[in-house]
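Researcher: Batch entry, complex prediction.
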Amino acid sequence: MIEFHLDSSSGVAAYMQIVHQVKRAMRLGLLRKDDQLPTVREVVAQLAINPNTVLKAYRHLEMEGLVAGRQGQGTFVLQTLAGPELAGHAELRTELLAWLDRATALGLDDEDIAALVASTLDERFRALQQEEDGAA
Amino acid sequence: MTDALATYELGKRYGKQWALSDCSVAIPAGSISAVIGPNGAGKSTLLNAVVGLFPPTTGRIELFGGDPYADPSMVSRVGFVSQDRPLYRDFTVSEMLRFGASTNPRWDQPAAEARIASLGIPLGRKIKSLSGGQQAQVSLVLAIAKRAELIVLDEPVAALDPLARREFMQTLMDDVVENGQTVVFSSHLVGELERVCDHLVLLNQGRVQYCGALESFSQGHRLLVGPRVDTAEITALHHVIRASHTERQSTVLIRANGKAIDPRWDVRDPGFEEVVLAYLGQRASDLESSR
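Model: Structure tokens for the complex:
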């Protein structure tokens, strides 16, 4: 079982934060196939948030095919994400370390690097969204 | 979704002063709505009118599709917690519950006792010896145990410390999970609304500035930062909520309307709180021009 936490200053919608945290837990192997997500009531009791927010997050995860509700029991994880991806992690990590060394050699410190990564991810997200909007 | 509560061009006048005018809101059943606005915006007036405490001067109110002033049975379907908590200070908690039981036809005594027990409040204690947070919780339990379909709370947590506020909201939300009531509450703690509400009513100077889903409100605005421009230039293209200028830079908050935005602007997503404050900061003259 995992616990959610919300950052109200992040600007990310609360339900999205829950979606991200479930996906992250799945990727890290904290949630595997047939594991149960916290019930709506448990999340509400813990975070004092709107139950509709939790329902919306779980519906979103259901639509992505990651979890499924079982009548009267709760919401369960449908697949294990961690396995094959963890294998790829090692290779990516090696490449990333080489890239980080280059960045450091160019005079970037950790904060510069973090800012560069964040802004690039952000730009990429926007570009992908625009593509989607264009397609739709 | 049907509306649990709707007002149509509601107006309320005190003497010569209009506390509310032309106020139309719709609160979908099952939503959790916040009514926000600066002091004197008409929040309490609106909430008092919708729970039937006084008839409006103009316009009308619909509760569950009916007229609350024509149908007295409506009273039992609405739970109201007013700003000055409706508790008798010399009563014990259990006397307060007995009072609730005798005045409400659908009273749920086991639920009331279970709530009080889970909050760790002794039934034999007098109301006046409880902390502010506990008093707020007791008045909430009274509204909950009434088994109302709509719970209306006027500034329920304004006087509470952050921990007591969190506990209060936990009690409220936990009951909503179980019973699915519609909740409307007023607040000026803007920063804490986003995690609780899915619906928003923005009041300013007795008028409705926004009524709708919180998500479309948060995502429906853009903050533009760029080289200095005339406000007129930008109002010609966009609906401007707030604009500020320095010698070289302009910062403009607009309502997103799907129109393309000039690429010289750096476009950002303003946070929920920033958009709310921009609306609340609008002056009377701005309000007129935006209507």
